[in-house]
TrEMBL record:
<keyword id="KW-0234">DNA repair</keyword>
<keyword id="KW-0227">DNA damage</keyword>
<keyword id="KW-0238">DNA-binding</keyword>
<feature type="binding site">
    <location>
        <begin position="31"/>
        <end position="38"/>
    </location>
    <ligand>
        <name>ATP</name>
    </ligand>
</feature>
<dbReference type="GO" id="GO:0003697">
    <property type="term" value="F:single-stranded DNA binding"/>
</dbReference>
<feature type="domain" description="RecF/RecN/SMC N-terminal">
    <location>
        <begin position="3"/>
        <end position="92"/>
    </location>
</feature>
<keyword id="KW-0547">Nucleotide-binding</keyword>
<dbReference type="GO" id="GO:0006260">
    <property type="term" value="P:DNA replication"/>
</dbReference>
<dbReference type="InterPro" id="IPR042174">
    <property type="entry name" value="RecF_2"/>
</dbReference>
<keyword id="KW-0742">SOS response</keyword>
<comment type="similarity">
    <text>Belongs to the RecF family.</text>
</comment>
<keyword id="KW-0235">DNA replication</keyword>
<dbReference type="GO" id="GO:0005524">
    <property type="term" value="F:ATP binding"/>
</dbReference>
<dbReference type="GO" id="GO:0006302">
    <property type="term" value="P:double-strand break repair"/>
</dbReference>
<keyword id="KW-0067">ATP-binding</keyword>
<dbReference type="GO" id="GO:0005737">
    <property type="term" value="C:cytoplasm"/>
</dbReference>
<dbReference type="InterPro" id="IPR001238">
    <property type="entry name" value="DNA-binding_RecF"/>
</dbReference>
Amino acid sequence: MNVNQLKLIHFRNYENTSFSFDSNCIHYLYGKNAQGKTNLIEAIYFLSHLHSFRTNQLSSLVMKENESLIIEAKVESNKQNEHLKVVVSHHKKHLFRFLNPVNKYSDFVGIVNAILFCPDDMMIFSQSPKFRRRFIDMELIKLSKTYTTTLSHYQKILKERNLALKQNEINDALIDIYTDQMIQDEKIILNQRNHFIEQLILKAKQIYPFFSSEKEIIDAKYETFVSIDDDLEENLIHAYQKSLAKDKLYHQTNLGIHKDDIQFLLNGSNINDVASQGQKRSFLLALKLGLAQIIYEKSHQYPILLLDDVFSELDDIRKKQLIQKLPLNMQIFITTTEWMDPSSFGSRPVKFYKIEKGSIKEVDHGR
Ligand SMILES: Nc1ncnc2c1ncn2[C@@H]1O[C@H](COP(=O)(O)OP(=O)(O)OP(=O)(O)O)[C@@H](O)[C@H]1O
């Protein structure tokens, strides 16, 4: 998958700028602080996810003193050309594919599949379980339509069950119906989430040694309230029967996949308790590259990889190891404040761009 052309109008500090990018090439975006490097990859991320990784405020993305923004892109996906356009105006997103309006977000999300690594991502290890669940959901939503519909159905039923539990006179028959529907959804969601984490950590385990000189063992476990085995349905029924009295007492659903978590382990201990910043960064990079591999196996094409400020805190050896580990047929954007010697990229296709005050200029390898 490749973004071959990108046009930004009134996006952050880009007034009206067009970019051309090469397929399966590393784009090395360098420049001083606060020039627009992250803004550029934020625009590509927005095309993929329809939200930013830095803000929930759509208005922050619109260039100051303007009312709307446009992100327009020509994309190549599985050898097909796509023309995508997002207009943000008055806090609303308007989507277009080949200039025809797209009404459902789910018909747009995932046409561009981009994976991001940014320093704030490391908070995934220390933040509340909600953020780790969001990480799985975001990826599975792009990978599986069944997952998307099942998850939103589950969320709707959970709300209704909680509402029913809040009534003065609780209708037991209604609670039973909701519980049964939740169990059917949870069977699908739990199997998909658990399988995803198992696959992801398997890939990450193969990649992690490239970033680590020590013999460390990484692992990840999906944590839920039942065991995920051949008797999953029975296990769920039993768990909800046991918790019914408590649910009625507290007027809410105390069990469910809305409370699950992922545990990340380094040498058998929770990563937060033992890992250095460098180890966390390496773990996360291994997860992100593992994710790219899973997407490749499922969709037969690599996603676009956005590496924001990935090189800080990595020594020269690790930087080179990272470059070697990047899949060859993948379009990659790297932002950094440092110039890097072109020889570090070996024979890989790489283009260098200098970003300055919202403008982008291709520079030759000799600067
Ligand atoms: N809505 C906006 N309108 C105009 N300018 C904006 C807007 N939002 C951010 N900016 C400007 O964008 C610049 C920051 O760009 P960006 O976050 O891409 O920096 P960067 O080049 O990645 O820097 P660093 O290396 O420090 O991460 C700042 O100058 C900021 O004032």
